[in-house]
Amino acid sequence: MSRLSRALKIRTITAAAVATCLVGVAAGCGNTSGTAGADGTTEITLWTWQSTINDFVTAFEKTHPNIKVKVTNAGANEDEYMQLTNALNAGNGIPDLVYLDFNAVHQFAISDQLRNVNDYGFDKISGDFTEAAQNNVTVNGQPYGLPISSGPMVMFYNQDVFDKAGVESVPTTWDEYRAAAEKIASLPGDAHITNDTGDGGFITSMLWQAGAQPFSVDGTTVSVNFNDKNVKKFTGMWQPMLDSKLIDTSTTGWTDDWWRKLDDGSIATMLTGAWMVSSMQKNLSQTKGSWRVAPMPQYAAGEHVNGENGGGALAMPKGSNDAKTRAAYEFAQWFAHGDGVQVNLQQGGLPPLNSVLSDADWLDEKDAFFGGQATHQVIASASKDVTTDFEYLPYMAYANSIAVNSIGQVYHGKTTLQKALVQWGDALKTYGQQEGFTVK
Questions:
Q1: What is the pLDDT of residue 80?
Q2: Cα–Cα distance between 218 and 393 in angstroms, integer?
Q3: Together in a domain, 294 and 237
Q4: Which residue windows are coiled coil (predicted)?
Q5: What are the pLDDT digits (tens) for 195-227?
Q6: Alpha carbon of 82 to those of 14, 314, 383: distances in Å?
Q7: CA of 265: how far to CAs of 92, 164, 178, 418, in Å?
Q8: Is 115 exposed, middle or buried (0-12, 13-18, 19+ CB in 10 A)?
Q9: pTM of the predicted model, to two decimals?
Q10: Last residue of one domain, picked from the residues 352, 385, 407
């Protein structure tokens, strides 16, 4: 393996982790042998952490009896990527399909470890996906996955908290957002407009929404720059809010405490991907009917600039069984562009398809959880506002894993956000050079 190919490895992989994966392979962690069973069926292996995946598999197998889909949960996010890296390095146990966040598509494609899906017919349907989705699976001009979910950023807000705090109109600019934060902070108890503990993915999405382009990639040449004006636009807005303690910096997302504070009104907004809808409906009971969805606040009145947080694709790793690739692509296309789209919508998903975003019935659906609001209208507009010039590093999973080393210090009062981002960037430059990239 070339030094550049090894760029995919996350440095926290230990010998024990490798051994664990290889034991899993022996036990059926992935299946790369054989093409069809005695009954003529082809079994493909899919890696994903999606909790509702069985609904898709059941629906697919009813209309495709010649294909069986074996699902393996190899862990979420970086855990799955580590397992996939191990399998690729071992040349064994490689899945036929794998769900990857958009940033991970770039990470695995840059080192030539994913199949070009145009070879299977994606070019015939690619124009049906949003421009942002197409961009998110494209590396060096070629697509390496079928987009199945998207995460245009929106602002979820608790209308009851806004009313109690005297926030008379939904913030449309960041100045208005800060004014609302000050009113919410004056409420009895420990109330904040939002929370932030320095998650690298969140910070990256906020930079995207500010119009920043901290990363650029040209083949094996990467550039990292956290000193441009749009990075400073974000830090110049967010740092004063941190300094004034208008943001809850002690509550980490996806914890029980976080859900509790969202449900008792202690945290009044979430700035995140629109996919959060289904999670809110499952985890928030006391505030059902109180939440609403709005576009992200802008840096200047009248602007329509947005970024993404989350979303991903089904990709086909190289090294899996060649004879199974057609069946694997058939499932992926069914999921992303066929009848699987309806299953996705029924689960509250957001397929990045132009046909969905322009469907009148879908746009007019009202959601009782959000007080009868037609939330899809806001989400569709947010999706169309996503800028398509943002690029991920080809080692973004590693980047997010070390963000806490620098950005995390901001939330302990040890440095400023701007200085921490520059420090993060320096660490990413060093890593890129060590892994064989030309770094500017």
A1: 96
A2: 10
A3: yes
A4: none
A5: 999 999 999 999 999 999 999 999 899 999 999
A6: 10, 17, 30
A7: 49, 10, 18, 30
A8: buried
A9: 0.90
A10: 352
Which residue do the tokens 């245009």 mark? 152
CA distance 5 to 2: 5
The number of domains in the chain is 2
Are 391 and 252 contained in the same domain?
Answer: yes
| DSSP E strand boundaries for 123-235 | 138-139, 142-143, 146-158, 194-195, 215-218, 221-224
Looking at 320, 352, 384, which one is the last position of a domain? 352
Residues contacting 148, CB < 8 A, separation 6+:
99, 312, 313, 314, 332, 335, 336, 340, 344, 349, 351
All residues at 6 or more sequence positions from 426 whose CB lies less than 8 Å from its CB, including other chains: none
Dist. CA 325–CA 348, nearest whole Å: 29
Task: Describe the strand order of the beta sheet including 438-439 as a list of residue ranges.
Answer: 215-218, 221-224, 438-439
Same domain, 283 and 182: yes
Residue 190 belongs to domain spanning: 152-308+366-439
Q: Around 36, how many Cα atoms within 13 Å sit in the side-chain half-sphere? A: 10
C-alpha separations of 168 from 164, 165, 248, 283, 290 in Å: 10, 9, 22, 27, 15
pLDDT one-digit tens code per residue, 332-387: 999 999 999 999 999 989 999 999 999 999 999 999 999 999 999 999 999 999 99
